[in-house]
């Protein structure tokens, strides 16, 4: 019965995904994923990017956030991207494949900065979602806390932290952690996020 429910749920998700207007728009415009439009909407509302910024993109694959950011920051800016999954090259983006929880990968990323502070840390990371939020939420919060630790270490005085997270158990406590480290924190939900999704974005500035 459980596998049957999962297959029905997966079939419904795939059907909705391929009928999604943003998926179709991404395919038409040779954009790597619909996540591009989420970042675009967040940027238009909050003016995230400026020419020449230094950016890190955590959970970057397939690369739509790096793709969007590169257009905004121009050739004088730089992007460091990291994901467990592979990502096709993007001009101007220095990609590291691996789990940044691994000290070796994290040190490679930090060493590539050459002590330069970053203007923006953006994280679109998420674990493999099982659909069981008693399992998923601790994993989500764990990744979110790791992204927060990195942002606290590498961000400049006026740096911006943009994080995808999900509403659920443990979120309120994590949100309080962010408010300790940043002077302005707000929750955003772009129109591109599916209505029934618990997905939200946290935008924090110093």
Automatic annotation (TrEMBL):
S-adenosyl-L-methionine binds at residues 63, 65, 83, 99, 124. GO terms for cellular component: cytoplasm. GO terms for molecular function: rRNA (uridine-2'-O-)-methyltransferase activity. It is found in: Cytoplasm. Coiled coil: none annotated. Specifically methylates the uridine in position 2552 of 23S rRNA at the 2'-O position of the ribose in the fully assembled 50S ribosomal subunit. Belongs to the class I-like SAM-binding methyltransferase superfamily. RNA methyltransferase RlmE family. HAMAP family: RNA_methyltr_E. This is Ribosomal RNA large subunit methyltransferase E. The lineage of its organism: Bacteria, Pseudomonadati, Pseudomonadota, Gammaproteobacteria, Enterobacterales. The gene is rlmE.
């Amino acid at each position: 019965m459980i596998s049957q429910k999962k297959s029905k749920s997966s079939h419904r998700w795939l059907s909705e995904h391929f009928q999604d207007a943003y998926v179709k728009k991404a395919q038409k415009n040779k954009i790597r994923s619909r996540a591009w439009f989420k970042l675009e909407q967040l940027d238009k509302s909050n003016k995230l990017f400026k020419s020449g910024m230094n950016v890190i993109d955590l959970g970057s694959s397939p690369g739509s956030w790096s793709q969007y950011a590169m257009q905004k920051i121009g050739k004088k800016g730089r992007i460091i991207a990291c994901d467990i999954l592979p990502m096709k090259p993007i001009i101007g983006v220095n990609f590291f494949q691996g789990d940044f929880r691994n000290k070796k990968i994290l040190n490679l990323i930090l060493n590539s900065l050459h002590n330069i502070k970053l203007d923006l840390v953006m994280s679109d990371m998420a674990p493999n979602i099982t659909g069981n939020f008693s399992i998923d939420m601790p994993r989500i919060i764990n990744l979110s806390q790791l992204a927060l630790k990195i942002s606290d270490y590498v961000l400049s005085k006026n740096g911006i932290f943009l994080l995808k997270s999900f509403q659920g158990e443990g979120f309120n406590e994590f949100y309080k952690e962010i408010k300790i480290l940043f002077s302005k924190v707000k929750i955003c939900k772009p129109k591109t996020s599916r209505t029934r999704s618990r997905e939200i974005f946290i935008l924090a500035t110093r």
